[in-house]
Design goal:
Radius of gyration: 21 Å
Number of domains: 2
Order of helices and strands: HHHHHHHHHH
CATH class of the largest domain: Mainly Alpha
Helix content: 55-70%
Largest sheet: none
Distance between the termini: 88 Å
CATH architecture of the largest domain: Orthogonal Bundle
Shape: elongated
CATH superfamily of the largest domain: Tetracycline Repressor, domain 2
């Protein structure tokens, strides 16, 4: 009797292209249906079986956490490129303001999903900490803003929250009046800066 030697099957290498397709599909589905978007729909849009999605992300929570990291990293990569470290506080604040809004205008669905994830409890403290190292120049600038006379006595983080809220308001008006994009970005920053000066 002939014996067959069974060779254990090698785990298939995961394709970066498929992973990116799943993340892109997640952006599209979540932008439409919110964080409750079913994984079956995300997988379908990515052109993979739902089981394949779970070979890349062990759970939906893991998918959402990884998507958060991807979106935040994309923003901070842009922010850190040519960051004017030696410039005035106003110039550095403008860089943060305009770079974020430039990204948000270019990728409105990513911005929408990023905001939802940022506010969600599904994104763990560990995941949030993963991108902390990319925020150095931004955090230092926002911390300096927080020391201005206008913000004395307000809780730590107020400057960041105020900038974010005004950026989101500006983005909402840009969506309604796209032809005024540059004007709105500049005028809204002028208002923001006057408040913090």
């Amino acid at each position: 009797m002939r014996h067959c030697t069974l060779i254990p099957s090698m785990a298939r290498a995961r394709s970066p292209e498929k992973r990116n397709a799943i993340l892109d599909a997640a952006v599209q589905e979540i932008a439409t249906a919110g964080l409750g978007a079913p994984t079956a729909k995300i997988a379908g849009r990515a052109g993979v079986a739902e089981g394949t999605l779970f070979t890349y992300f062990a759970s939906k929570d893991e998918l959402l956490n990884q998507l958060y990291v991807e979106l935040k990293s994309e923003v901070y990569t842009r922010m850190n490129a040519e960051f004017p470290d030696k410039a005035s506080l106003q110039r550095r604040a403008w860089h943060i303001w305009s770079t974020y809004l430039g990204w948000a205008v270019a990728f409105p669905k990513k911005r929408k999903v990023s905001v939802q994830l940022h506010l969600s409890d599904v994104v763990s403290a560990e995941t949030r900490a993963q991108i902390a190292g990319q925020r150095g120049a931004t955090d230092a600038t926002i911390a300096e803003l927080g020391e201005r006379l206008a913000l004395r006595g307000l809780p730590e983080g107020f400057a960041a929250a105020a900038m974010s809220a005004m950026q989101e308001a500006t983005m909402d008006f840009i969506t309604k009046q796209p032809r005024r994009r540059e004007e709105l970005i500049e005028k809204a920053f002028a208002v923001f800066w006057r408040l913090f000066r």
